[in-house]
Amino acid sequence: MAAFATVDDYQEWLSGREGTIPLAEFDFWAKRATEEINAVTFGHAGELEEPTEAVISATCEYAEFLLATHGRENIASISVTGHSISFDRQSKDGVNMLRRLLANTGLLYKGACD
Predict the structure, then answer these.
(1) CA 56/CA 13 separation, integer angstroms
(2) 75-85 burial, b for 16+ CB within 10 Å, e for fewer?
(3) In whole angstroms, what is the distance from residue 112 CA to residue 100 CA?
(4) d(CA 53, CA 7)
(5) In a domain, 1, yes or no
(6) Disulfide-capable partner of 84 in 3, 35, 72, 79 (CB 3.0 to 4.6 Å)?
(7) Residue 77 host element (H or E)
């Protein structure tokens, strides 16, 4: 699957700002962001004939988030006997970011916006 945003989209999204993703690496991070967006939208974003501006912007912003948080552990605690795993704010922050960016697109499951 192709990413929802290209290097050209990223440069346009930056609007003259300094980006955090080296242009040579953007496709990698954009594809990871696209996978996450598809997961959060239950594949609806991937069904679009062309990505909307909101989806392109979400891809660019989330790709920067993924790079910034790359290598950090998502698991805050594990309890073997109780079989529970707690995730840190990083995972929640990423989902909340996508909810904010895609909230008015009609692509999210209604429960994801509540």
Answers:
(1) 8
(2) eeeeeeeeeee
(3) 10
(4) 14
(5) no
(6) 79
(7) strand 75-79
Distance CA 89, CA 15 (A): 29
114/99 Cα distance (integer angstroms): 10
The pTM for the full model equals 0.77
Q: Is residue 2 part of a domain?
A: no
Domain residues for the domain of 79 are 7-113
Cross-strand pairs, 87: 75
Q: Tell me whether residue 61 is in a domain.
A: yes
- pLDDT greater than 60 at residue 84: no
Whether residue 112 has pLDDT greater than 50: no
Cα dihedral sign for 89, 9, 99, 2?
A: negative
For the stretch 9-67, pLDDT in tens is 999 999 999 999 999 999 999 999 999 999 889 899 999 999 999 999 999 999 999 99
**Residue 3 pLDDT:** 96
Residue 110, Cβ density class (10 Å: 0-12 exposed, 13-18 middle, ≥19 buried): exposed
